[in-house]
Q: What sequence folds into this?
C-alpha cells in the first residue's frame, strides 16, 4: 500500500485520468454507514488510499473505477462518503480513447467456460446479497469474504503458471471481431501486451497485471501511445 501511495503521489502532476480496474483491496464493500459502523470506520486500513484518491480528485484528475470480484456496491460510495465524483462501473463497458473504440473491464468474465464462477458471481453481485452484507456488517462479511477469496485464489490463480491464461487473449480477439480496436483487462495477475490485425485494423490487447506481484500499470499518452510499465520507486 505504501508503494502504491508513493506511485499515485509521483504521478499527480502529470496525469489527467486514473482508471482502476478493480480488486484494489482484498475485500471492499461500500457500506453506507462507513464512518459510523461500530466504533471506527468499516475499513480503517484503507483510509490512506481513499485520502490519496481524494487528493488526486482535488487536483482535477478524473477517476474511473471498474469493480472487480473483490469489491462491491461502490456506485455511490465515493460521492456519499468522500464527496468525490468518481465514475463507477459494476461491469465492463465501451469507452472512447481518442480514435480507439475500447472495451475496458476487470476481466473476471473473460473465460466463458468458468460457468461455475459466473453463476457464483451472479449470486454475489445482486441486490439481495448486498442487503444481506449490509445486515451482517463489516466484521462478519469480511471473515466470510476472506474464506471465499482464499478458496477462489487456489482454484483460479496458479502462482506457478509461467504464462498468462489463454482465455484472456481469446476474449480480446472476440472483441476485436465485434469491432473494438482496444481491449484492456486485469484479473489475470499477468501483465500482457498483444498486437493483432483484424480485417486490416491494428488491434491492441493489454492486461495491466497486478500491483502486489508486478507493480504493473498501463500508461496511455495521446495520441495513440501505450506503455505497459512497472513502478520501482519503493
A:
Amino acid at each position: 500500500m505504501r508503494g502504491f501511495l508513493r506511485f499515485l503521489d509521483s504521478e499527480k502532476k502529470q496525469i489527467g485520468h486514473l482508471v482502476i480496474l478493480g480488486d484494489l483491496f482484498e475485500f471492499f464493500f461500500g457500506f453506507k454507514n462507513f464512518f459510523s459502523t461500530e466504533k471506527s470506520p468499516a475499513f480503517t486500513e484503507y483510509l490512506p488510499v481513499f485520502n490519496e484518491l481524494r487528493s488526486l480528485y482535488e487536483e482535477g484528475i478524473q477517476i474511473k473505477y471498474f469493480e472487480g470480484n473483490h469489491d462491491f456496491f461502490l456506485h455511490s460510495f465515493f460521492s456519499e462518503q468522500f464527496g468525490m465524483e468518481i465514475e463507477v462501473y459494476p461491469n465492463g463497458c465501451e469507452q472512447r480513447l481518442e480514435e480507439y473504440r475500447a472495451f475496458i473491464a476487470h476481466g473476471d468474465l473473460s473465460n466463458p467456460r468458468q460457468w461455475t464462477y459466473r453463476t457464483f458471481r451472479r449470486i454475489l453481485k445482486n441486490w439481495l446479497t448486498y442487503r444481506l452484507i449490509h445486515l451482517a456488517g463489516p466484521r462478519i462479511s469480511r471473515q466470510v469474504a476472506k474464506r471465499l477469496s482464499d478458496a477462489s485464489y487456489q482454484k483460479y490463480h496458479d502462482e506457478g503458471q509461467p504464462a498468462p491464461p489463454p482465455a484472456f487473449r481469446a476474449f480480446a480477439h472476440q472483441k476485436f471481431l465485434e469491432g473494438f480496436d482496444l481491449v484492456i483487462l486485469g484479473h489475470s495477475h499477468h501483465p500482457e501486451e498483444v498486437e493483432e490485425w483484424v480485417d486490416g485494423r491494428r488491434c491492441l490487447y493489454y492486461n495491466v497485471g497486478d500491483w502486489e506481484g508486478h507493480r504493473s500499470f498501463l500508461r496511455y499518452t495521446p495520441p495513440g501511445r501505450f506503455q505497459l510499465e512497472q513502478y520501482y520507486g519503493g
User: Anything to note?
Assistant: The longest strand covers residues 191-198. Residues 64 and 87 are 5 Å apart (CA to CA).
